[in-house]
């Protein structure tokens, strides 16, 4: 989920432009919506892990904790939306969604550990490697975009935006894959071993 979020944030303007920019939906609307997409993309991270940890609670026959955390998350989201919307407008609303989802995720992690169902250290290390790879991938992509002069934040039209999405996504996948291999992330190492075995059998 980390690299997908990174790519969505980088390519937010081309994505919104391709999907929505036509008719009364102007380029200014695209820029505003793309800014809101940053908060929504980040909130997906918290929501994904929250769903995962909810299942962990269900597996130990605890449905009360996820329900209470969900209730607290809704209340926190409402309060943050009111406060941040007054400070930052629409951006504040998406920021509150992102913050509340992260808060929810952290609460579930803490409460799960308190129940002595500790999260496997190997999984934590693996996730940090994936997060680190995604951050490095993002930085490298931004450097490449700057060096090559790829303009992804202007009103370049459907065709140019589509080409930019394909090229940058392809480069991102290559860079991310190399980083995963270099850091020996568990899933990619298993995948590499699988293909090596298949090639030997051919």
Plain-language structure description:
This protein has helices spanning 2-10, 12-20, 27-59, 64-88, 90-114, 121-148, 157-182, 186-201. The protein has 202 residues and is mainly α. Helix 2 (12-20) packs across helix 3, helix 3 runs parallel beside helix 5 (90-114) and helix 6 packs across helix 7 (157-182).
Output the keywords.
202 residues; mainly alpha
Short description:
The protein is mainly α. It has 8 helices and no strands. The chain is flat.
What is the element string, with H for helices and E for strands? HHHHHHHH
The coarse overall form would be flat
Radius of gyration: 20 Å
Please state the average pLDDT score.
85
Low-confidence stretches: none
Oligomer: single chain
Strand content: under 5%
Helical content stands at: over 70%
What's the layout of helices and strands?
Elements: H1 2-10, H2 12-20, H3 27-59, H4 64-88, H5 90-114, H6 121-148, H7 157-182, H8 186-201
